[in-house]
């Protein structure tokens, strides 16, 4: 199936352990492509979170990525406010978007009460519909690059949403790690790429367009199996006019299975 194939994922090596393991089990050569950098908004995010909780008294905390969890809790550790943050979050009903985010929350001593079957913003909306949370308040600490889809969806259900932006996202600056990929890409020796977020799509095209014209990129990518992990990633890929397939299950393992079946 994937014997001898070279496949890439738009994640750093540290974040791509599951993908690398799956590729190696299938005798494929994995490449991790760090496409984005997260820039924390600084130590103030912990106080801002604590103040927002104090003022709005939310019933639920919703975490949409393991990155958001790590940045918030590690900043709290560095500023001596970890126990305070832990207590405040534990006093809410905690929802996590998926398994990786849940594991990360649990590593900071936070019990996860809800995890939607569909690991996406739509899944979070479905979960809230099922638990009948009309009139409840929700706090969502998240990326500054995120769109307003989830907030609007929860507002429609009748849920009051407070968002706190913890970090900004930009394209990965040190692209020396891309040299091997670029070389194989030029020789049409890359067989598949899994895109894991809308911002990683933007980062990928920003980095690659420094070395390739739009036509070259589109031509080479049209010969590769491109997989989108979910809805928002797909919306971003459409802007670049390249053919892709959407993973039915919005996880790395689901995207990998989709690639394998192609």
3D structure, described in words:
This protein folds into 2 domains: 120 residues, Rossmann fold (3-Layer(aba) Sandwich), CATH 3.40.50; 132 residues, Rossmann fold, CATH 3.40.50.10090. Helix 1 links the parallel strand 1 and strand 2. It is an alpha/beta fold and 262 residues long. The strands form 2 sheets. The protein has a 5-stranded parallel sheet. A 5-stranded mixed sheet has the order 3-7-6-4-5. 45% of the residues lie in helices and 19% in strands. It has 12 helices and 10 strands. Helix 3 runs parallel beside helix 5 and helix 6 runs parallel beside helix 7.
- By DSSP, the count of extended strands is 10
Helical content band? 40-55%
CATH topology of the largest domain: Rossmann fold
CATH first level of the largest domain: Alpha Beta
Overall structural domain count: 2
How would you describe the oligomerization state of the chains in this entry? single chain
The major pleated sheet works out as: 5 strands, parallel
Give the low-confidence spans. none
What's the alpha carbon Rg, rounded to whole Å? 19 Å
Structural class: alpha/beta
| Chain-averaged pLDDT | 95
Q: What's the shape? A: elongated
> Strand order, biggest sheet?
2-1-8-9-10
Which strand-content bin applies to the residues? 15-25%
């Amino acid at each position: 199936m994937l014997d001898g194939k070279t496949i890439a994922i738009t994640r750093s090596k540290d974040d791509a352990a599951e993908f690398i393991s799956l590729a190696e089990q299938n005798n494929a050569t994995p490449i991790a492509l760090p496409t984005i950098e997260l820039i924390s908004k600084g130590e103030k995010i912990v106080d801002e979170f604590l103040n927002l909780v104090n003022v709005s008294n939310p019933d639920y905390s919703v975490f949409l990525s393991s990155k958001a969890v790590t940045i918030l809790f590690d900043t709290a550790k560095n500023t001596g406010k970890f126990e305070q943050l832990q207590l405040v979050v534990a006093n809410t009903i905690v929802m996590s978007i998926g398994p990786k985010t849940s594991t990360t929350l649990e590593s900071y001593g936070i019990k996860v009460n809800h995890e939607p079957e569909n690991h996406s913003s739509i899944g979070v909306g479905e979960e809230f519909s099922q638990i009948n949370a009309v009139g409840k308040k929700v706090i969502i600490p998240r990326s500054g690059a995120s769109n307003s889809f989830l907030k609007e969806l929860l507002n429609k259900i009748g849920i009051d949403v407070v968002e706190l932006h913890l970090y900004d996202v930009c394209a990965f600056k040190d692209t020396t790690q891309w040299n091997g990929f670029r070389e194989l890409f030029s020789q049409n020796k890359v067989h598949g790429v899994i895109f894991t977020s809308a911002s990683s799509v933007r980062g990928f095209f920003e980095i690659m367009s420094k070395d390739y014209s739009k036509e070259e990129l589109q031509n080479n990518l049209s010969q590769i199996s491109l997989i989108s992990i979910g809805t928002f990633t797909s919306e971003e890929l459409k802007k670049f006019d390249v053919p892709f397939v959407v993973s039915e299950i919005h996880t790395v393992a689901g995207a990998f299975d989709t690639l394998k079946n192609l």
